[in-house]
Amino acid sequence: MDSKPIARTAYLVATLHTAGVRLRERLTPTQAQRDERGASTLEIVFWAVALLLLAGIVYAALTAYINGKLPGIR
Question: Would residue 46 be called left, alpha or beta, if left means φ above 0 and alpha means ψ between -120 and 50 degrees?
Fold first, then answer.
């Protein structure tokens, strides 16, 4: 029995597999190639909510402090 046709078939399969993998890598952008400049809308919404909460906490703290000192002024 001659093993050369089997070896050639295995070589052909390996070559086609390698060519397919390389072609797929060229066609699909990698993580480093994707353009991710700027913030996403969801990120902007999270920052806006966080800043509003911070402003509310500062406002509540100042209001409580001032209302606590107000009876001492009169």
Answer: alpha
Pair of tokens at residue 4: 């050369």
- Looking at residue 38, the DSSP 8-state letter turns out to be S
For 16-32, write each residue's pLDDT tens digit: 888 888 888 887 766 55
Helices of type H across 1-74: 4-27, 41-73
Give residue 47's region: left, alpha or beta (phi > 0; psi -120 to 50): alpha
Which amino acid is located at 8 in the chain? R
How many residues are recorded in the chain?
A: 74
Residue with tokens 């409580």: 64
**What is the model's pTM?**
0.47
